Amino acid sequence: MKSRSPIILFTYLRIDNLKNTIQYLVNNHGVNEYDLFIFSDGPKYQKDQILIDEIRKYLKTITGFKSITITESKSNKGLAISVIYGVSEVLKNYDRAIVLEDDLITSSNFLEFMDASLNQYENKSEVISISGYSFPNIYNKNSDAYLLNRSWSWGWATWRNRWETIDWQANTYAVFSKDQKLKKQFSALGSDVNLMLKRQMGGKLDSWLIRFVFHQFQVKGITVYPTISKVTNNGWDEFASNNKGSGFRFKTDFDQSSNLNFKFPETLEINPEAQRKFLSRNGIRVRIKNKMIDFISYIFG
After folding, report:
1. Burial class (CB in 10 A: 0-12, 13-18, 19+), 298
2. Which of 17, 68, 74, 132 makes an SS bond possible with 231, Cβ 3.0 to 4.6 Å?
3. Is 200's pLDDT higher than 50?
């Protein structure tokens, strides 16, 4: 059996969510065999220092892992730079990594699924990432996973040889932005991707993920998803970097089983039904419905 993949955890201001993330992570099978690398971002405003000091005091009390390495930033890097820097640093010494943020709750078999997937697809260069999160009701009756052409950032994993090929400057964007055919093809990954990429390149969004997805589109990369989600997101609060509102459209089934043996698809083919259901969750109608629900909740409390 291969050695365990390192876990990378990014945290900023959310002490209660962070404690939940750690609590569920510690309940994972075999967690004492995993090295944990924590990156604590620095204050954006002076008032944030109190919360950050509290978080860093808590970080020093964490136990249950094979080893724990904490990196404390003096200044505020922001989420995108923090992730790109942190993952790149850890992958200098490892050939793969499992990545989390401080607003995620994981199932007890999350780490086992991620490591099993990393082992299964290590030599399949088409697969560039593993997702621990899955939208509900996207089932593959013949296996415990399915394949899509878009990555997701709520508990994910990748390999060094995939990560190091990404152009974080997106130098091809200028040509891409003028090609309507390419933009239409890109929109097949979701109704939100073109606008997200445009905002990122215009300095109005702080996202490493949309650049990762853009790279994935260019290389025709594949992401592995669990049929039943191993992750839920608990980060819909005032400290969220990019998550806004109630998160209605992201509510999902959560794996409560103790399954540690996973069956994967026999071929690297994207299931059309899974793709359709995924896109419907990221379509304009569902996004509008989600915004309406958030608005009504805000008005009527």
Report:
1. exposed
2. 132
3. yes
